[in-house]
Write a structure and sequence with these properties.
Layout (H helix, E strand, L loop, with lengths): L4 E3 L4 H7 L4 H24 L6 E2 L2 H8 L1 E4 L4 E4 H11 L3 E12 L4 E12 L1 H6 L1 E3 L32 H9 L3 E3 L1 H14 L6 E3 L2 E3 L6 H15 L6 E3 L5 E3 L13 E3 L2 E2 L1 E5 L2 H13 L8 H11 L3 H9 L7 H13 L8 H9 L1 H13 L2 H26 L5 E4 L2 E4 L4 H14 L6 E5 L3
Antiparallel strand pairs: 1-7, 2-6, 3-4, 5-6, 8-13, 9-10, 11-12, 13-14, 15-17, 15-18, 16-17
Helix pairs in contact: 1-2, 6-15, 7-8, 9-10, 9-15, 13-14, 14-15, 15-16
Length: 442
């Protein structure tokens, strides 16, 4: 089901009236403005870290088309002009991103410019809701399309899924949501200005994040999607090996409204999964070594026990100036994935207590890059959790689960079966991970 959304306190119909559009033109083409707004929202919600959305003219042109308005005096190319109107009305910003690509066929570098669009924060903060127009003369979408029933005929952004990725995608419809309960929770959270987990906003940690109308709109849209059976599965098989869906970025506070066969789901999480991937790399490096440095052995043991973050913070940040829940994010940003141009205080602290491990990380980034290190660790994690663990679960006839990177959410009755497969697969790599389970009910 495809649902169109409207920004709160902004009426596109009034805007078009102000531009002198006729009633017939507005009735025929108003839906296109909500379609574009919804498309931009989609990327902002699916990829919350994306600052701007790449706007594809060729993708949306066949749907939006063009026409003449104002007594046929003006031709409107909707795929371009709606964005211009959004900029004019203070709804969005438009930018350009220059890219260069090497063409193997012509052995030359080709340059192209992508148009990028960002819905302004002040518009998102006002929130948005489903677009409903009770006027029967107002078209709700392309000819033959039923509002809130059919998918709009958008070209798929991702290649067809295969193998385990396809199995994961095919199983997503098993996941249902208690939509009324989730909506009620969000409404109550707004009224009470519920305190949320700290988060980096504009490069600064916000320790007083509260539920507001803008955030509630995003959460409600995510609830809408699952209630409508829209899971939007996709995968990145080459770079990170990860599987994505609507559930990937689902807020933890409303995950307990999800179920399979009416049962609340248990979260099975591999502790310290990312550093554990580097522990696996170190095991490879020292596989034939007569002597393994003490800090390497200690690092591997702490990762396997699921205690690395606690141990590392006690050594690097003994006064716990940084909130323990933030340490993981800060640590990876400043040690594992830093550029290495300037050595931070965090790196000095890590190097002091884990000198050989730190030297190995520096050597990798020097020979490759910090971004490649992040990708390699994600790929290693995905190869284990998706291509090995999930694949084996399906072979064993177990399918009542979904996955988010290093975690599996499943019905309670198969928890031990899932854990057994996780231990079995990691054992093949010479790793004995620590696994946590958590079940949250309403």
């Amino acid at each position: 089901m495809y649902i169109l959304y409207a920004p709160n306190d902004i009426c596109f119909k009034s805007k078009l009236v102000d531009k002198g559009w006729s009633t017939i033109s507005i009735n025929n083409h108003l839906w296109k403005y909500y379609y574009v707004f919804t498309q931009l929202l989609e990327t902002h919600i699916l990829y919350p870290r994306a600052n701007r959305v790449k706007w594809s003219y060729t993708k949306h042109k066949p749907i939006l088309k063009d026409t003449r308005v104002l007594g046929k005096a003006m031709k409107i190319d909707f795929a371009t002009d709606i964005i211009s109107h959004f900029v004019e009305w203070g709804i969005a910003q438009r930018g350009r991103e220059n890219k260069s690509e090497f063409n193997k066929g012509t052995l030359s570098i080709q340059y192209k410019t992508d148009v990028t669009v960002k819905i302004l924060d002040e518009v998102l903060d006002l929130g948005f809701s489903k677009w409903i127009d009770t006027d029967p003369k107002v078209k709700a979408g392309p000819k033959g399309w039923q509002p809130n029933t059919d998918y709009l005929p958008v070209n798929p952004s991702f290649k067809p899924l295969t193998g385990t990725f396809k199995l994961l995608a095919d199983n997503l419809p098993l996941v249902k949501i208690d939509a009324p309960g989730a909506y009620a929770f969000v409404e109550k959270a707004v009224k009470e200005k519920l305190l949320l987990k700290p988060k980096i906003e504009n490069y600064i940690w916000n320790y007083d994040r509260r539920m507001n109308i803008g955030l509630a709109s995003k959460w409600n849209k995510m609830i809408d999607s699952i209630a409508a059976g829209d899971y939007s599965p996709a995968a990145d098989p080459n770079k990170t090996g990860r599987f994505f869906s609507r559930l990937t970025s689902y807020p933890k506070l409303i995950r307990h409204f999800l179920s399979i066969d009416g049962e609340h789901l248990t979260e099975i999480d591999v502790s310290n999964s990312q550093p554990l991937m580097y522990a696996l790399e170190l095991k490879k490096q020292y596989a034939t070594a007569a002597i393994i440095p003490e800090d390497v052995s200690r690092f591997i043991e702490e990762c396997e026990a699921g205690k690395f973050y606690v141990k590392a913070q006690a050594l690097i940040d003994p006064t716990f100036i940084v909130n323990p829940s933030e340490f993981k994010i800060q640590f990876f940003a400043k040690v594992f994935f830093s550029s290495g141009v300037r050595v931070s205080q965090w790196e000095h602290g890590f190097a002091k207590h884990y000198p050989t491990v730190y030297a190995s990380i520096r050597a990798f980034k020097k020979n490759h890059s910090n971004k490649m290190l992040a990708g390699e660790m994600q790929k290693a994690e995905s190869d284990i959790m998706i291509q090995k663990v999930c694949a084996q679960l399906y072979k064993n006839g177990i399918n009542k689960f979904y996955t988010i990177h290093d975690a599996i959410y499943c019905v309670p009755g198969i928890v031990e079966d899932v854990k057994a497969v996780i231990f079995q697969v990691y054992a093949e790599y010479g790793i004995a991970p620590s696994v946590k389970t958590k079940t949250k009910t309403k």
